[in-house]
Amino acid sequence: MQKNKKWIFRFLALWLCIIGVTQSAAYAAKDKPRIRILATGGTIAGAQKSQTDYGYKSGAFNVDDLINAVPTLKEIATISGEQIANIGSQDMNDEIWLKLAKRINEVLKSGDYDGVVVTHGTDTMEETAFFLNLVVKSDKPVVLVGSMRPATAVSADGPSNLYNAVATAANPDTKGRGVLVVMNDEIHTARNVEKTNTTNVETFRSPERGPAGLVNTGKISWFEPSMKRHTVKSEFNVDKEDALPRVDIIYAYSNMNGDLIEAAAKAGAKGLVIAGVGDGNMSQSALASLQNLANKGVLVVRSTRLPTGMVLRNNEVDDDKMGFVASGEFNPEKSRVLAMLALTKTKDPKKVQEMFNLY
Fold first, then answer.
1. Is residue 13 predicted with pLDDT exceeding 50?
2. What would the pLDDT profile of 198-256 be if each residue is shown by its tens digit?
């Protein structure tokens, strides 16, 4: 009998120990930020035939492969993932944008997650980030991340970038800063960031305002937050949208005429962004074509093909008279994104100009 009691006590002690360890692990997991990774493909999931090949195939790996490649992610957050798409970002489109935006809003609204990381190709990352910055309806962190070297490359930058992106999304100070892009140990706001080099790992920069912060091995130093409208303060909502208005970009050049401008309108463009010379300028024949279309209700936005500088309203073109919108700081790509969303609200160029000033 005495021997049986000893075994019972030992069993109870062991059982309590197991329960305690299990509960401690559960509490530890609960205390960690819960980050959902939404994968869309890109170079970060790319593979070469061999490490000496310059070319590679985007989207060769899935979200679980990316997570498993960085085992230390589990030390800073509770990680889970899902595949939204698996493409090179040159093939990013409105359909995937809407799917991604709706899914992010669902994830963050559910209360099951503290932030979202989106893995993305770099070619159109700044456009996707800015689109999400205008339509995500949460102040929880949303961070886009990619890489300039495929996953199979020597010194691939994807794992480090992903670790820093998760660390940024898991950081409580990231809340309320809008959608961010993390690349090469830097944090950029979606509004300001641009891809500036074809292949270098330091390609993402914010030419006018600088980065929002620095992140190295998960340690963050923040700079000044953006005061422009975004996310929860944005008036745009795509949760019930199945498509977006077509807006085309036309590149300005010497000896430009109005043929491509007219062709874009005939093809169905509801808005046109001109990547103008200098301060958003273009030839007289191009101006005449644009004014004609603006009079017919096509939204016209003047941006610039130059890498830095603002397109000022009524500077060399009479925007008030012609019914144009001046893009301000926005490059042609981001001008197009904002124009598309503006057209879901209004075609009035004066109201659209107010949006360009606010966002």
1. no
2. 999 999 999 999 999 999 999 999 999 989 999 999 999 999 999 999 999 999 999 99
> What is the number of helices (H) and of strands (E) in the chain?
11, 14
Q: For residue 81, what are the β-bridge partners?
A: 37
Q: How many CB atoms lie within 10 A of CB 140?
A: 20
The model scores a pTM over 0.85? yes
Angle, CA 203 vertex, CA 200 and CA 208 arms, to 5°: 155
* Catalytically annotated residues: 43
Six token digits for residue 81? 């993932």
> How far is CA 58 from each of CA 5, 87, 161, 205, rounded to the nearest angstrom?
64, 6, 17, 23
How far out from the chain centre does Cα 102 lie? 14
Q: Are 323 and 300 in contact (CB under 8 A)?
A: yes
**203 Cα distance to chain centroid:** 15
Asked if 220 and 171 touch (Cβ cutoff 8 Å), the reply is yes
Q: Is the dihedral of CA 67, 69, 73, 75 positive or negative?
A: positive
To the nearest 10°, the Cα dihedral for 257, 262, 265, 266?
A: -150
Helices (H), the chain: 2-31, 63-68, 73-76, 94-109, 125-135, 158-170, 259-266, 284-295, 319-322, 332-342, 349-358
Report DSSP state, residue 174: G
- Sorted by where each starts, the structural domains of the chain and their CATH numbers stand as 33-233 (3.40.50.1170), 247-358 (3.40.50.40)
